[in-house]
């Protein structure tokens, strides 16, 4: 079997999908994307596929991963690792379809029958956030995450800290104490402010505080972790096992959140998750993207003992009405119930793409960029 062709599809809201074709008619799908850098990643995928993969046997997944990563003198980083990730998804999809097995079977077999997923809660008004979370709790979700605070200055007033803490308190009241709640600082909080804000949040029994500092200041994670009872996490802006290594060795985090679209795909994410297990570190994969990325991430979760909860942004509670699941032949394929999704049993990634719908959506202009925030003095704020 040989790889003969490929196509890339940009679709709303900010996704890029890769289709790899073979001379035996077996097709694999991947999702290579850096949100806000779609065209840059498209160019990187094109270079890698045309320069290295066309005419190759797709079943040599490990060899291709090493070649695509290691043959470049300049390697790593969000663009190259995300391009590699989408290719790796598609190669594993082809491999699973060739052998008639889900990817998690090829990685050792499943260790669980269903996987808890969490719901992202957005909005600016604390009352609206609480209402949204309560509604999603009634829809069956049992775990939630909120990106907060918003524009937070390097030194903040007591009132600003109080406001941030009160908002989390309202959210906890809305979902109850029988649900998980994680907070993502999104790298918006400075080293002087992060320890105090984390300490003030301890009464709300959080599942984690994610990215308490930006990745540029990762050397400060250990200090925060030793001063709080809340599990500290990070990982969505780390791109390989080498980026995670120091965090694990220094015991700086209790949870990591690798993204299967940014860490080089299923192959590298599986290695990262296994490495974390040796340090008794749990995994909550980051995945605010499309159904291909979600399916790829699930394949790793189902064969990984230390995977805890999986992020999703697909409206799994109402698949028939979800525009984000409309790319699939069967929008209900993930089987959401009581806050969990069922183990995928189909070959490869376990999903089938509705190409007619995909090609229709790909005619839409996709030009998403993350917002640029400013503090009240006009300086740039972390988004």
From TrEMBL:
Its EC number is 4.2.1.6. One of its GO terms (molecular function) is galactonate dehydratase activity. InterPro entries: DgoD-like (IPR034593), Enolase-like_C_sf (IPR036849), Enolase-like_N (IPR029017), Enolase_C-like (IPR029065), Galactonate_deHydtase (IPR023592), Mandel_Rmase/mucon_lact_enz_CS (IPR018110), Mandelate_racemase_C (IPR013342), Mandelate_racemase_N_dom (IPR013341). It comes from the Archaea. SUPFAM superfamilies: Enolase C-terminal domain-like, Enolase N-terminal domain-like. It is an enzyme of class 4 (lyase). Gene3D superfamilies: Enolase-like C-terminal domain, Enolase-like, N-terminal domain. Keywords: Lyase, Magnesium, Metal-binding. It holds the Pfam family MR_MLE_N. NCBIfam families: PRK14017.1 (NF010624). This is Galactonate dehydratase. It comes from Haloarcula limicola. The gene is dgoD.
């Amino acid at each position: 079997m040989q790889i003969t062709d490929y196509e890339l599809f940009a679709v709303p809201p900010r996704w890029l999908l890769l289709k790899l074709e073979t001379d035996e008619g077996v097709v694999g799908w991947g999702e290579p994307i850096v949100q806000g850098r779609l065209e840059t990643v498209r160019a990187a995928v094109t270079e890698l596929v045309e320069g290295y993969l066309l005419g190759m046997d797709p079943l040599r997944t490990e060899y291709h991963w090493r070649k695509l990563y290691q043959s470049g003198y300049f390697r790593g980083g969000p663009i190259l690792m995300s391009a590699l990730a989408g290719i790796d998804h598609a190669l594993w999809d082809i491999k699973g379809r060739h052998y008639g097995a889900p990817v998690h079977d090829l990685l050792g077999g499943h260790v669980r029958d269903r996987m808890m997923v969490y719901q992202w809660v957005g909005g600016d008004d604390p009352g609206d956030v609480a209402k949204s979370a309560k509604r999603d709790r009634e829809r069956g979700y049992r775990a939630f995450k909120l990106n907060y605070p918003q524009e937070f200055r390097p030194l903040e007033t007591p009132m600003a800290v109080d406001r941030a803490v009160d908002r989390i308190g309202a959210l906890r009241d809305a979902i109850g104490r029988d649900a998980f709640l994680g907070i993502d600082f999104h790298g918006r909080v400075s080293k002087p402010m992060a320890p105090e804000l984390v300490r003030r949040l301890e009464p709300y029994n959080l599942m984690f505080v994610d990215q308490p500092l930006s990745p540029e200041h990762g050397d400060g994670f250990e200090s925060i972790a030793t001063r709080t009872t809340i599990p500290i996490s990070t990982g969505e802006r780390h791109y390989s096992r080498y980026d995670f290594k120091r965090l694990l060795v220094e015991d700086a985090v209790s949870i990591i959140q690798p993204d299967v679209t940014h860490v080089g795909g299923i192959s590298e994410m599986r290695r990262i998750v296994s490495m974390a297990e040796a340090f008794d570190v749990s995994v909550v994969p980051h995945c605010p993207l499309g159904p291909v990325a979600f399916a790829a991430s699930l394949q790793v979760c189902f064969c990984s003992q230390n995977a805890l909860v999986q992020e999703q942004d697909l409206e799994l509670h109402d698949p028939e009405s979800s525009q984000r699941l409309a790319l699939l032949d069967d929008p209900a394929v993930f089987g959401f119930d009581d806050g969990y999704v069922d183990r995928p049993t189909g070959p490869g990634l376990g999903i089938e793409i509705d190409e007619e719908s995909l090609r229709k959506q790909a005619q839409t202009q996709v030009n998403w960029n993350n917002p640029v925030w400013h503090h009240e003095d006009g300086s740039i704020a972390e988004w």
